[in-house]
Design goal:
The protein is of the alpha+beta class. It is about 55% helix and about 10% strand. It has 2 domains: about 15-100, no CATH class; about 105-160, no CATH class. It is built from 7 helices and 4 strands; from the N terminus they run ααααααββββα. A hairpin with a 4-residue loop joins strand 3 (about 135-145) and strand 4 (about 150-155).
């Protein structure tokens, strides 16, 4: 997943834009390949359900690789039954519960970096397998030294930097859109 950057690294918007471009290019290439395979299979008839399923899996995987901002976008689209076919929506709905987790070693580094102590001093035990993984964080069950069972929610490494870079990119895209397509500008009704 794209959210595996070190907490100390800054994600530059142009580098992020390049990464997004690479993912979009790869996605479009995959869609063209699937389209060609489907065309040859159906010889121009209706798209097969295998094609649509493959397409929806590609969308989900690309959103996961692009990181938390795009996962959230996929979750928002998944809540709209009027935008995409059901098979695509079902695949995007898996973004609510089936987000890949970050390795346990990275989580330990994040906990120790945030709390300033080794995990062994903080907890008697902590489960390596997360209870859940979301776009921004993941949760691990732990037992404190006074025998209390707790859930440790950890923000995934690099998420903050990725979201800030994406916000910067979106602002710049909005600025460019304003000058290239002024008729598409949103009007403020308070003025």
């Amino acid at each position: 997943m794209a959210a595996t950057l070190s907490m100390s690294k800054r994600v530059f918007p142009f580098k992020r834009a390049f990464g997004i471009g690479v993912h979009l290019g790869s996605f479009l290439g995959s869609v063209l390949w699937l389209s060609l395979k489907n065309f040859l299979h159906c010889m121009g008839g209706r798209p097969s359900s295998l094609f649509i399923h493959g397409y929806s899996v590609l969308i989900r995987k690309r959103l996961e690789r692009l990181g938390p901002t795009f996962i959230k976008l996929g979750q928002i689209v998944a809540s709209r039954d009027d935008l995409l076919p059901d098979i695509v929506l079902q695949e995007l709905k898996s973004l609510y519960s089936e987000i890949p987790s970050v390795s346990f070693d990275r989580i330990v580094e994040t906990i120790e970096g945030s709390l300033g102590e080794p995990v062994e001093d903080l907890f008697e035990s902590i489960e390596e397998k997360p209870l859940g993984s979301a776009s921004i964080g993941q949760v691990h069950r732990a037992v404190t030294w006074d025998r209390a069972t707790v859930c440790v929610k950890v923000v995934k490494p690099g998420v903050r930097e990725l979201v800030l870079a994406d916000i910067t990119l979106l602002r710049r895209m909005g600025w460019c859109r304003h000058f290239l397509f002024p008729r598409l500008s949103l009007k403020n009704s308070d003025r």
